[in-house]
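Example noted here:
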Amino acid sequence: MVLTTDKKSISIHNTEAVSIAEIPVLAYADFKAQVLTWLHFEKCHCVAYFAYPFAGGLKFIAAIADDSNAQVYLLSHEQMGTQAIELDALSASAMPMHIYEREIAENYGVVFNNHPWPKPVRFAFNRFNQEMQVNDYPFYKIESDQLHEVGVGPIHAGVIEPGHFRFLCNGETVLHLEIQLGWQHRGVEQLYLDKKTLLQRAILSENIAGDTAVGHATASALLTESLTGANTQNTMLDIERTIALEWERIAMGIFDLSNLNVGIAYQLANSVFGALRTPVINFFQSWCGNRFGKSLIRPGGTHYPLTDELVAKMVAIMDDFETRFDAMAEKTFHLPSVLNRFDGIGKVTKKQMTLIGAVGQAAKAAGLIRDTRYTHPVMAYETLKVLPEMQNSGDVLARFTLRRLEIKQSIRMIRHLLDMRQYVDQESGSPLKQSEYSMKPNAFSLALVEGWRGEICHCAITDENGNLQHYKVKDPSFHNWLALALSLRNLEISDFPINNKSYNLSYCGFDL
């Protein structure tokens, strides 16, 4: 932890814990000025901004990541008393803050003056205004006899979670898409406070977003280890967790390639890529007993070390996978009918991605580097020195191509990590026991993990007894749903399915 030279913030590294008392508390005007100064630079972006009840009022904490030096700046402000809180909106000058302020407003009734998009985020069951119902969502409207609206969902034809998409169209052309989520809010963050054991919280983490069980479980485990002071200087455990994250990236990347080909009726690629996914997710079953990697990640260690037998099986799967994947990818990515359907469709610019605070694949496909493996590395990523795969066109083809590149990159990383593993003598170690579980009192920590969609952030605050006082979860979909909406502007409504598939965002990861 380092106090910045102006004493208006402190800086920590990813997964570093700090005393709450050491986070500077600023007057809101100073807080706003400092945050806006940082966010003026592309190298900085907000990874967390939230409020929680504190001393008869609200305490607000912001975490601004500086991607140029692997630091995360922390600062806070407090608003005391029982009167309604009104603040000048940060998002009036820094658009990426819009979603954070909307969430705070929904949870605590804070009014952010001059906010450009003051709408509910997810209709949490414990929202401040209980009279506001999901059916009262204030959709954007244009009064015109020449325009019409098309509504899709929240009940969908396929196996999909509830979400409503409202298209404002001129004929077949989409002028505006608004995405309304929040139909099945589960109260995940409150459940972290209600559940008291390590096992309960680990299982909860795996179920934040079922297709990112490893990603969220890793973030939660790293955060727990940070707050307990557990000895995690274990190279083998770092290697195994990193391999699991990249294996999850391969599994979901190949699924997306298959699914995108469904959208254009190219059945050969759909079938081949779909078949290639099966041995990948089945390997998780061999490793830990669950095809999605649940039960693999636990604070302090693992119940399922990567044995030599499992390594041999993993290598055989990769060898076969890569041979068949390369052949099908070469054919698919040179097929004119595929390229013609994806090229130039659903285009978003780097500036748009910067303005909405996009992360992960959505950002990288438009030329914006947002990859915590590169900018805030932990575990074996510190050794790997990951250079993110990038695209610049920001269209469906870019997002399609990025999946292919990341799959190949993940395979290379896993092979390298398996080679490193041969030179590590220690074992990965056993998980923390409940009797050993004791968190630092009055502490704050955060963990950034690059899930396959992008940046996952978990934050936690403990009270004077070392119990969880507040827990905050951010899935990359929290930022990226707006990117999908931007992708549809001035396209035909029939282009929606492939745009949607090209992002493959999470409903449940958003609607916590």
